[in-house]
Each structure stands twice: as structure tokens, then as C-alpha cells.
Amino acid sequence: MITDIADKVYAGQRITIEDARRLYAHHNLAELGMLAHWARLQKYPEQVVTYNVGRNINYTNVCWVKCDFCAFYRAPGSDEGYVLPHEQIFAKIDELVAFGGDEPKSCEILMQGGLNPKLRLDYYEDLLSQIRDRFPQVQLHCLSATEIIYIEHLSKLPLDETIRRLHEAGLDSIPGAGAEILTDEIRDIIGFRKDRTEEWLAVHRIAHELGMHTTATMMYGHVETLEDRMEHLRLVRDMQDQTGGLTAFIAWNFQPDETALGADRGRFDGRKGTGYDYLRTIAIARIFLDNVPNFQASWVTQGAKIAQVSLGYGVNDFGSTMIEENVVAEAGTIHYLTLEEIRDAISELGYTPRQRNVFYELVEERWEQFAIDANRQRAAALSVLN
């Protein structure tokens, strides 16, 4: 029974790690969903689910870290390695702006890559500042903590100065990528060259101190235990208590296909995460992370149907249009939704879909309608070509 935990949640009291353990041991998924949905409604009582018009850009796939859970990277010197020319990146942003609208900071660019030894701080400052100056419509939600730590290492500058210079060059916010599971023991198993837990946290703390916002993520379902998941959530909650700079939490399960870890039966048992575990994980996270305002559905890994169900398990945001997703696709998981399909998925459950920016602020309805119309025209043009 979890009646006492439910009483805490309904009274607005914080649950403990021991409470979280009991929730993980509680197999009535519907009851977990009811609690998580109630917690969500305390922050967002309106029947609104948000989404973002955005695009992924993977500016390089060269990475020396070679994490065992990643199918995207190519080692330095590989014939398949690349660094996108600036003009190609600008062309991708032009495509986004064409159907995202002209309102300043209304579209999102999620730009991430690998730890490329040839790319130094000046490369990133030049690229970010050029995008900022050429495209006032976009918000730059770019560079994982892992990438920033490596940029700091190559530049031989203090971490706070590195982040400040990136911010001044145009970096608006930092995505939560690279968190995986925030325990060094697990990080050593799945990517022993990665940054340490405290280093990842330090990037986000410093960004918050500089007035930036960031998100937090969790990639679960590989070699971690439930205790590791709870430690991860504890660290995220503690940091948010200290800084208040997180806008959202996003969780997804490990995608094992085409990865070294997925093929290693000595470390990974071969069982891919289920929809049940995703809904359980996101619901408990919503209940436990009482200080993180937004929870984003991971339709890219879970598909549209589970993402829809997650709206009853604490989730209030359907994520991005995610034009051109490459990292998860390299691991064999391919889900694609148009803007209209995202809006339909939200509306089907009785919610009102609304477009937001990176900071989870609603955009003006006229620009939202512009994006809807432009995306319909784009879809019609593509259907003629096909």
C-alpha cells in the first residue's frame, strides 16, 4: 500500500528516497499515474500541453570518448567522420525558420555533436555568434555538459569563463544530455572516458549562476539499478533546490541496437525497456522532482502512443518537432511526427496544444498559426514529390 505516500503528495509534502523505493516496488501503474498527474495539475491546472518547433543539428559525429551506449559517434580519423560546414548548418536553420515563423526566439535549435579534438572554443564562439546574428528567430539550446567540459579542457580556461564566453556568443540554454545515470560507478561501466557526475552537475550549476536555464535528463534501462536511478533523481532535485535553473526533465530508455553495450551480454541482458517501465519511471520522477516545473515526453524513443499515455503520468510537454534526429536513429529507433501529428496527438486526449519557446513561454498565437500553416504546406509539397 502507498496510502501514506499518497497523503503526502496530496498535502503538498516532499517524498523521501525511501518513499521513492516503495513507489518503484508498487506495481499498480494506474495508481502511480494518478499521483503523478495530480502533481502535474498542481503546477499546470489548465488543460494545455505544450510543444516546440525545433530542429536537431549534429554539427560533428567525431568523438574520441567512444561511449559504449552510443551508435552515433565515429572515432577521430574515421572515413565516416564529419564536421558540417557553417553554410550547411545555416541552410538547415533556414529550413526551420521557413515554417517556424519570424517571432524572435520562437524556434529552437538543438545543436550537439561529439567530443572532436579539432574543435576549440573559438570554433564554437564563431559558429554561435554567426547563428545569433543571422537568425534572431531561433533560440540556441546547444552543447551538452560533456561537450562544454571538453571545450574547457582544450581551451585551458576555467569552467565558468568557458560557459560565460559561450553564453556571450549566443548560447541561450544548455540541454541535459550527457547525464545518462549520475553515479560514477555506472558512468565507468557504460562510458569510462566521460565526465564525472560532479563535473556534469558543475556545468549546470555555473550556467544557472550566470542566469542561464538548462534541462536535466536520464537515460535508464542499461546496467543501472533502481538505487542508481533514485540517486540520479536525488542529485537533480538537490541541485534544483540550490539554483532553480532547470526548466524541464526528460527521461528515455537505452536504445541498444548497433551499440557495443547492447551487444555485450556480460554487461547488458539484452532486454530493451518497455512502455510500462517508461511510464513508471516518468511518474515517479514527476512525484519526486517536485521542484522541476516541466516534464517532456520522449516520443522519439517511445513512439507517439506511449507519449500520449505519458500525458496522464505527469508529463505536460510533447517535446519538439525534432526535424532530423540522428543519434537515436543510428541505434535503430526511428519515430517521426509532423507538427500536425504532434498537435493531433495532444488534441485527441482533450488537451489544447500550444507552441512554446525554449524557456517554456507560450509564443503568440499568430506565430503559432503561421507555423501550423507553413507545416501543412510543407507536408503537402512533400506528398506531391512522393
Question: What are the SSEs and their pairings?
Answer:
Elements: H1 3-10, H2 17-25, H3 29-43, E1 48-52, E2 54-58, H4 86-100, E3 107-112, H5 121-134, E4 138-142, H6 145-155, H7 159-169, E5 173-174, H8 184-191, H9 197-209, E6 213-220, H10 226-243, E7 246-253, H11 260-263, H12 275-288, E8 294-296, H13 299-302, H14 304-310, E9 317-320, H15 327-330, H16 339-347, E10 352-356, H17 365-385
Parallel strand pairs: 1-9, 1-10, 2-3, 3-4, 5-6, 6-7, 7-8
Please explain how this structure is put together.
With 386 residues, the chain is of the alpha/beta class. The protein has a single domain (46-385), classed as TIM Barrel (Alpha-Beta Barrel), CATH 3.20.20. It has 17 helices and ten strands. The strands form three sheets. The protein has a four-stranded parallel sheet, with helices on one face. Strand 3 (107-112), helix 5 (121-134) and strand 4 (138-142) form a beta-alpha-beta unit. Helix 2 (17-25) crosses helix 10 (226-243), helix 2 (17-25) packs antiparallel against helix 12 (275-288) and helix 3 packs across helix 12 (275-288). It is globular, with a radius of gyration of 20 Å. The model is unreliable at 328-333 (pLDDT under 50).
Query: Helix/strand-derived class?
Result: alpha/beta
Q: Give me the CATH architecture, please.
A: Alpha-Beta Barrel
CATH class call = Alpha Beta
Task: Outline the biggest β-sheet.
Answer: 4 strands, parallel
* Uncertain residue ranges: 328-333
